[in-house]
Amino acid sequence: MSEVVTTRGRTIRIRRFDRAAIGAVMSREVANFRTFWKGTTFNSLLDPTIYLLAFGLGLGTTIVGDVEGIPYVQFVGTGMVATAVIFSSALPAMFGTFVKYHFQKTYDAILATPVDTEELVTAEALWIALRSGFYGTFPIIVTFFFGLPPEPTMVLIPLFCFVTAFGFASFGIAVAAKAQKIDQFNYVTTTCITPLFLVAGTFFPISGLPQGAQVVAQFNPLYQLVELVRGAAFGFESVDVLRLVALIIFSLVLWRLAIRFMTQRLID
Amino acid sequence: MPAIELIGVKKAFGEIQAVNDLNLEVPQGICLGLLGPNGAGKSTTMRILTGQSIADEGTIKVLGMDLPEQAKFARARMGVVPQLDNLDVDVTVEQNLAVFARLYRAPSVPEAVDRALEIARLTDRRKDSVGELSGGMRRRLLLARGLVHDPELVLLDEPTVGLDPQIRTQLWTLIDGLRTAGSTILMSTHYIEEAERLADEVAVMTAGAVIARGKPADLIKEHAGARTVEIYGPPHELEEHRDRFNTAGVSVRAAGPAIAVLAAEDAPRELIPDHAVDRAASLEDVFVKLTGEDAE
Ligand SMILES: Nc1ncnc2c1ncn2[C@@H]1O[C@H](COP(=O)(O)OP(=O)(O)O)[C@@H](O)[C@H]1O
Ligand SMILES: [Mg+2]
């Protein structure tokens, strides 16, 4: 549904769910990002490098040999994509959202224009997901230097990262919408984000866990992402289609939840 | 068609009735001052007009559109200037404006930005980041941001609250220019002087409802008469004066260090001491009488 609004002799078309609104909100993010992209990008490269040096080379050359037929450094390197994705999506979404509605009142200003909460949340999640799709590939690039052979199927990795990051960005936004104080994010990090990233199969294979934990891990989107990334690097399995579908469902559900919670937060 | 039409609007936050049976009509082309003390419900009213707050009851029409259903479309035709500065400080002046030009779907973003820069008189600072601007420049930018799409209706929520007198004067000049250009303006304020200077008509709001409405001169005539007399003196003397006036059925109020007698022209002459200061009745007298609040 859309409406043509005439104002001062001009006509503008405003849709119920408007690409122009989403683009405009994202343009604000881009303008702000241009002021701090260097630091963020540098960290995104440095992080996996340090982990790979420490875990990959440290453990890989002395304690652990191949894991699931893959040299340990490549096992960790591909798994670290999930780490990069969650830390570049859920955390910025949580803190950024809270700061923007609570301290800066940015969302009050945006919602006074022909943009609604649905478009606002979608734009914010999209932008973070695009960024994460990009940063998610950094561990792979770093691992190339540790001997990971490039494969054509790896071009799918940014897409896998994007889908997962969209869900975790929405998760962060939803959490921020419910938060009363910024300190509460520490609990969320400790109780949700850290366990998710530890049992994603990044540093050790899930198959080594007890049966119960293995079942639980199946519900960890980060684990599914890691499996997809390793599929892209070392060969897909047929269940990987299901993994992607599951990630898409996860993201869509959290997206709707983020919209619902933010509407409750922003509209009184 | 009036620019704004509010009939029987109510909005509660839990126990607090922020807006309580509000009726307000703003015709096109005027600046209406919504004058009320803190907590009167002015900001809530503004948020209801943009669909950021959903009223519990009542009819709301903005530029002929029904709210909240059509709020998003109505917002395309209005500009909102918030009470608090929520500019993006790390990016440039023109980037702040360009984002809002896009949010408002301006047909040409560069043209909209240029126009707004001119309004804010910040054309030569366009490439500077907002963090580098002075307080006055930031407020001018905040105002211009809400005008970037040349809106038909402008909502100003306490546009100068807490600002230096100098910055306030700058903003008054801009708002006056807007009014002269024929925009419809709804401006909330709790500063009498602001309403007196800028508003064609004033609606006095308290406890969530408009209790008086009219041109400042008419309001003064109706509620405060022609003359106000202020009597200064030590507290016990003022107390005696007050008692005498009260006995004679004339209402007096405290006015800082003095007491003020409204409609002094009708008060018994012999009750007014020689040292009393006689002045024309003002909007402040109306405000204090109607809201029971001390004016700022
Ligand atoms: N979101 C809210 N939650 C709870 N109370 C609110 C909220 N917004 C406003 N109020 C209350 O409603 C009343 C009117 O507030 P407001 O509209 O901000 O008044 P004004 O702008 O005239 O100072 C105040 O008592 C205020 O505390
Ligand atoms: Mg207010």
Short description:
Chain A is mainly alpha-helical and 268 residues long. Chain A contains eleven helices and four strands. In chain B, the strands form three sheets. Chain B has a six-stranded mixed sheet with strand order 6-7-8-3-9-10, with helices on both faces. A four-stranded antiparallel sheet of chain B has the order 2-1-4-5.
Protein model, in words:
- The complex is a heterodimer of chains A (268) and B (296).
- Chain A is mainly α.
- Chain A has one domain.
- Chain A is built from eleven helices and four strands.
- Helix content of chain B is 34%, strand content 27%.
- In chain B, helix 8 (216-224) crosses helix 10.
- In chain B, 48% of the residues are buried.
- The longest helix of chain B has 16 residues, at 165-180.
- Classes of the chains: A mainly alpha (268), B alpha/beta (296).
- The structure holds adenosine-5'-diphosphate and magnesium ion.
- Residues 42-43, 83, 157-158 of chain B line the site of magnesium ion (MG).
SSE diagram, text form:
The complex is a heterodimer of chains A (268) and B (296).
Chain A: E1 2-7, E2 10-15, H1 19-33, H2 37-62, E3 66-67, E4 70-71, H3 72-103, H4 106-110, H5 117-135, H6 138-144, H7 157-178, H8 184-198, H9 211-218, H10 221-234, H11 239-266
Antiparallel strand pairs in A: 1-2, 3-4
Chain B: E1 4-13, E2 16-26, E3 31-35, H1 42-50, E4 57-62, E5 65-67, H2 71-75, E6 78-81, H3 93-103, H4 109-120, H5 135-145, E7 153-157, H6 165-180, E8 184-189, H7 192-198, E9 201-206, E10 209-214, H8 216-224, E11 227-232, H9 235-247, E12 252-255, E13 258-261, E14 277-280, H10 283-291
Parallel strand pairs in B: 3-8, 3-9, 6-7, 7-8
Antiparallel strand pairs in B: 1-2, 1-4, 4-5, 9-10, 11-13, 11-14, 12-13
Helix pairs in contact in B: 3-4, 4-5, 5-6, 8-10
Adenosine-5'-diphosphate binds at residues 13, 16, 18, 36, 38-44 of chain B.
